[in-house]
Amino acid sequence: MFKGLSNLTTLLKEVHQIQGRTEEMQQKLGQLRVDGRAGGEMVTVQADGLQRIVAIKIEPGLLQDAEMLEDLLVAATNQALDKSRELAAEEFSKITQMQLPGLSEMMSKFGLGGGGGTSSTSAGDSNVGGDGSK
Fold this sequence. Notes:
Distance between the termini: 54 Å
Structural class: alpha+beta
Shape: rod-shaped
Oligomer: single chain
Helix content: 40-55%
Radius of gyration: 21 Å
Strand order of the largest sheet: 1-2-3
Number of strands: 3
Order of helices and strands: HEEEHH
Number of helices: 3
């Protein structure tokens, strides 16, 4: 019985550490940037790793064609958000790949399976440094 309590204590310590790492990761993601471009770079939309749009650049000549500008803004924004989600998935997969000591045994005692396997998310080839553009 006391061995089970020791495993639970260890598990709770690990969960607390993961919470701290998650908070750090969210701060890091807020600082990372990725670009979405459309129309041969006539429109550039920049997002952070938290899927927030942080900047938009538009070539002045596009201001005369509202319909084209709208289409390019949508395309560039969607591209930036897709890259941002990939970047976040890469970062969060680093946390989820860790195995917690005793987790599998503890989960099986509570009838929760506890296969102990890890999950990995492939997030493409996002650049996590600098401006994040590919």
